[in-house]
Please model this.
Amino acid sequence: MSVPVRINEFLYEDAKRHAKAESRTIAGQIEFWAKIGKAALDNPDLPVDFVRELLTARAEGRAGATPFIPEGHRSETDD
Model:
C-alpha cells in the first residue's frame, strides 16, 4: 500500500541521487533510510554503519552472500 507524504525538496533530491547510485526507487531509498533510522533507534549500542550493512545484507539474501571462511582455513586465492 502506498501513501503520499510531503517531504522537504532537499531530502527528495538527496534521495534521488542516492537511489540512482544504489539502484532503488526514490521511495525505496527513503524507506531504506527510515528502516536504518528505526533500527538504529531500537539498537542504540550498535553503530549506524553496522545497522546499514546488516539491512543491506538481509535484502540481498543468501544467494548474494559471501561464505564465511575462518582465518586459518583460507587459501591464498580466497583473499
